Amino acid sequence: MKQKMWSITIRIKRNDELGGKHLSNLLIDFLVKSGVNGATVWTGVNGFGKRGKSTLKLEGVTVNMPLIIDVVDEQSKLEPLLPEIKRIVDDDGLVTIQEVDVV
Question: How much is the pTM?
Fold first, then answer.
């Protein structure tokens, strides 16, 4: 049996911050407090976007890899969270929404 849900994908960089805190931590804390069923943070090894390239330098000290935060839950739970997610991400990333079938 399939169930219609929403998938929100948030693309940011590891070093992105707001108020001195990493966006990934801010977003995960916000999602937990909002009662979302779960989210996963994925680390990328390379990528690029409107703010330039995100790279992983294995011998370097600073790593600014792309991160993807994937959230799947009911539309009724996620839709009200979009304004705050966008406020946190601002122009530092990209937020996409898809309707998905969960089995």
Answer: 0.84
CATH code for the domain in which residue 90 is found: 3.30.70.120
* Number of domains making up the chain: 1
Q: How far apart are the C-alpha atoms of 44 and 39, rounded to whole Å? A: 16
**For residue 51, what are the domain limits?**
3-102
Mind listing the pLDDT tens digit of every residue in the chain (103 residues)? 999 999 999 999 988 999 999 999 999 999 999 999 999 999 877 676 676 666 656 565 556 788 999 999 999 999 999 999 999 999 889 999 999 999 9
Joined tokens for residue 92: 């530092």
Q: Which residue has the tokens 């539309």?
A: 75
Contact 10/27 with Cβ under 8 angstroms?
yes
Contact 44, 36 (CB under 8 A): no
